[in-house]
Every structure is written in C-alpha cells, then in structure tokens.
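Appendix B. One record, verbatim.
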Amino acid sequence: MNAPAGQRSLKELYARRFGPKERAQKNALWKVLCQSFLQRYVSESDVVVDLGAGYCEFINNIRCGRKIAVDLNEETRQYAARDVTVLLERADALSSLEDATVDIVFASNLFEHLPDKEVLTAVLAEIRRVLRAGGRLLVLQPNIRYVYKEYWDYFDHYLPLSHLSLSEALLLEGFTMKEVRPRFLPYTVKTRLPKSGFTSQDLSAGASSSSAVWETDVSGGGEGGQLDAVLLRWYSFRGAGQRH
C-alpha cells in the first residue's frame, strides 16, 4: 500500500492489527464474498490484478485466468497462493505491467492509505493504463460519509473519501457511474457477523455501504472503448472494532 511508511513499518503495523484469528476470520468472509458476489464481475479467463493485496484474501479466492497481487508489504508473498504472481510495487508505478494487458483491477481498502489526492489521481491513471479496452475496476473501501469517526482510528489512514468525492475523481479519469449499492458491507470484521459458517445473507444483514459501477469512453491504454468500475463502500456496524 502507498502509505509513507517503509516495508518494515507496514509489516509491524499489520502484524499488530491482524493476528492469526483475525486473518482466518477475514479469509472466511472473503471466500463467501468472492463466491456469492464479486465473482459475477470476473470471468474465469480474466487477468486480475489485486492492488494493495495485503493478505491476498480476494486474489486467493477469486476464480480467474491469471492472478497478480500488488503490495509494498513483503509478507504478501507469504500469504499468496501458488497460482498468484506477487509484485512489490507502488500502485502508481506498476512497472512490471504493460499497457492494456489486464481485464480486472481490484482495490480493497487501499485509497484511504494514499498520502494525497495527487497520488490517487496517479493511481487511477496507472489503472487506466494497464486495463484493456472493456476492462473493469472494482473498488471497495471505507466511506467517510458513514464512518467519519471510525475512519481516523487508524494511523495509516490519510485520504478521506466519500462515494461522491471518489466518483468525481473517477469521472475526471473518464469513468462514468453504472451501479450504486448504498448499503453493502460492515466497516470492520470485529462486528456482529457470525465468526464461522456465515453466508452471503449474513454479509448484507445490517450493512450500510455504498457501491457503484462505472463505464468510460476511454479504453485501457487510452485507445478508445470502454472501462467499468465497481465501487463498493464499507460501512460500520454499531460498536467499535478493528478496521476491516
């Protein structure tokens, strides 16, 4: 992730935040989320990039043709499945990826860690560069409109974004909104969600996030065509807890 901290700081920060129990709970949740919802946006032949992959819960559980995890935390390699290629690169400088070679870019809980809007704009431009014509961007992250208190409980949160402000940023990069889901997922994993055996119905019960699907008349690589973006916002259940 593109916070100013170095790799050692990232490793220590997330080791403190997510112990083995929390990681197991997160992976179980992501397995259901991928199977029951996100898979509809991804075909089994797609090249998928998980931007800010972290513990690889999404990229390990989604079905696709080629899997690429991008993160600055060197421990991402430890958690990536065997069929995942890991790139330790900045989200605004994907030097290992050529123009118009990716079908899906997924970014979960990444943009709030960027230091400023200039870097966000650079990240969005880089996403556009690597996406093929007809490619798709999936974004899932906290919505400052709903979690304006909890948003700042984490030292590595820098950039406040709502569904409206991020929508404008995407519009400036050529995307147009297609789908909105005002209530989608909880802000944290330490909530009233069941800790095991839960289903897609459990994911939506009581949640209040927003999402949107986007299109553009500008292709991946800037050659014309269409891109989609799906914005999925986290909301908080009642009560405090760890971030996602």
